[in-house]
Every structure is written in structure tokens, then in C-alpha cells.
Design a protein that fits this description.
single chain, eight-stranded mixed beta sheet, about 25% helix, alpha/beta
Amino acid sequence: MLDSADKSDQALRDIYAWPDTQTFRLNLLATPDGIVGPDGTSHSLTNPEDRRILRAIRAEADVVIVGAESVRTEGWFLPPHGRLMVLSSTGFLPWDTCPDSTRVFVAPSASAIVHNLAKTETRVLCEGGLETAKLIAERIGFDEIALSTTGDDIPPMLSFLHIQDDFALASQLINSLHQMTFRYWRRAVEGRS
């Protein structure tokens, strides 16, 4: 199996290149114990190699979706270009620390996300939180899944994604230094309308 450390940044961008059609992609970092570390955020789970892959995935995203709790606990991480869509029924967010509120859209529901996508916003990346991922999986569906895990196993808490049933593995890399596995699946069966 190939080690991600042996891949150039361009090679990673090629692996995670976006298709030409509208695509909803999930990017998630998970351990057997969850998606947050001891500090209550994903920061204590991540490492330089995982962040390098995240940059490759985020580089061409038109929209990044996160949950309001992710913004409140981890801060604002606007995509390199495009918009950040925050799922929030209340709109209660730390606006005073937002670096550019003109690039943020608060969506009260998954349907509001779909209705507020511009025709040119075809590369939609969901990053923020397990509950957000569940909601998008249930209401919209994912076309692609990029999953970073510690170890080889897919955590049981991600069973709602039906990875083994609905998706085909497009890429698998390891990082031996950090004992991580980076998998990337594309939808193999019809599921998203």
C-alpha cells in the first residue's frame, strides 16, 4: 500500500480531483472512539499529513458545509475560495471572530443548502461534525467519501454511510508515521437524487 508521505501535493490533488458534475463529498477524520479528541475538537486528532490531504480536498471546493457546533468549538475555517455554509437553526455563531461574513451562509436545514447553491457551485464539501454528516447523508446523500482513520478499521459509528454497500474504493493510502489510513470512495450505486 502506498504511503501518503511519498505523494507530492499535486499527486494528492490529482487523487482527490473533483468531477465535472455536481458532487456532494464528505471529508471526515475518525478514530474508533469518535471524531473529536481529548480537547473536544478534531485538532488533537489531526497531524501534518492529514492536514495536507485536507488542503488537497478543500482546494477546489465551491462550498464547505459545517455544523454550528463545529464553528463554535473549532473556530472559523473558511475555504480557500467559495462559501462556508453553516447548518444552524438559531444562527447563534461567534460572528465577532468571523474573518469574512460575506462568504458565510447560515442554513437552517439541509434543503436550504440545496436551494441556496448557485449553478456554478458544483463541488460541495461537508466537513463539520457527525450530526451534520448524518443529516446530509439522510436528506441529500453523498456522492463521495474521504475518510481518514487511525488504524485500518472503519469505525462502527459511520455505519449510517453504507460505505460497503453503496461505494467503490477509488484510493487508499496509509501514513506509517502517524498510523493512519486515508480512503476515498465514489458512489457505486444510485442513491442521490
